[in-house]
Amino acid sequence: MRKMRTLLGFVHCCCCCCFLLLLPPPLWVSLAAAKQLLRYRLAEEGPADIRIGNVASDLGIVTGSGEVTFSLESGSDYLKIDNMTGELSTTERRIDREKLPQCQMIFDENECFLDFEVSVIGPSQSWVDLFEGRVIILDINDNTPTFPSPVLTLTVEENRPVGTLYLLPTATDRDFGRNGIERYELLQEPGGDGGRRSGGGAGGGSASGASESALYPGGSKRRQEADAAARSSVFELQVADTLDGEKQPQLIVKGALDREQRDSYELSLRVRDGGDPARSSQAILRVLITDVNDNSPRFEKSVYEADLAENSSPGTPILQLRAADLDVGRLAPHRP
Fold first, then answer.
1. 51 lies in which domain range?
2. How far apart are the C-alpha atoms of 57 and 37, rounded to whole Å?
3. Residue 205's CATH number
């Protein structure tokens, strides 16, 4: 009985060897390499029928006789294969890397991919083998970095010392790597002085105008000089690299701020990515200068004189005192 089993095993082994030897050499080689994963690379957003690669060629299978055919078992949403030639290409469905569920929050170029499986079917379906493949989706610069709002508002106290730093809102870019955000730029103030000169306080426009004339003789010239000084930039931009690899724009005070001379600055903040060509967008950066109690209220005159009749009745007006304070709101003069 043992001799009989040994003989049958020998015959079975010989039959298997003979079957392999009868296969065409390239096909026999492909079966030996069946565990190898097929890998391809493809840029996103391409049109339909873009050639990705040739499965038959990469497996070492000679085609043309029609004896060996190919069938895509998975991945057919975005990929298709020629049954006779093994040519792998894209379907009409557009591949947007940023919208692929498996690629959300993926910032490594080699980690966004489409997996597929392809069956290789032998002559007369005498055998079938399954191969796995992966198409790495390459990012292109198809998204523009944008700020969270077209107008960004920052509030700064007028007594902030030079060197004070303020964090600015960051832009977002759905692309990454070299196509992601590369730099921020602070542009010159648009439209002339790029800000609003300080108006009057709580006492009303005419009273404020009168008080300024009283406080600053020759006020017109002095106001022009102050405006010219205010138009020079008192802010600069600094960009810091965060621990997670992002860029954080920061606004730094580099000049004296005086709300009584100027209560706002309107700048432009631009963000650019590193694509070729680069994409960019801008937002208005509106810096509002808030008041601090840095001015004392002043009377218009240092000495007031009035004549009063000796028989004047109680409550008779004697004279009117007028004071002004360049500060505003609760910091402005008020009646006791």
1. 23-138
2. 14
3. 2.60.40.60
Separation of alpha carbons 236 and 50, rounded Å: 48
Residue 13 lies in a domain: no
In this structure, are 111 and 171 located in the same domain? Answer: no
Taking the C-alpha atoms of residue 125 and residue 280, their distance in angstroms, rounded to an integer, is 56
Between CA 163 and CA 232 the distance in angstroms is 17
One-letter amino acid of 100: L
Question: Given CA atoms 108, 112, 117, 118 in this order, what sign does their dihedral have?
Answer: negative
Segment 156-178, tens digit of pLDDT: 998 889 999 999 999 999 998 88
**pLDDT score at 34:** 46
State whether 161 and 70 are in the same domain: no
Same domain, 160 and 274: yes
Helix (H) or strand (E) holding 289: strand 280-290
With contact defined as beta carbons under 8 Å apart, do 91 and 135 qualify?
A: no
Residue 68 contacts residue 52 (beta carbons within 8 Å): no
Of 78, 107, 138, the residue at which a domain comes to its end is: 138
Confidence label for 299 from pLDDT (cuts 50, 70 and 90): low
- What size, in residues, is the chain? 336
Question: Is residue 79 within 8 Å of 118, Cβ to Cβ?
Answer: no
User: 309 Cβ partners below 8 Å, 6+ apart?
Assistant: none
Give, rounded to a whole angstrom, the gap between the first and last alpha carbons of the chain: 123
Report the greatest alpha carbon distance in the chain: 151
Give the Cα separation of 58 and 82 in Å (integer): 14
Residue 103 near residue 128, CB atoms below 8 Å: no
Say if CB 146 and CB 172 are below 8 A apart: yes
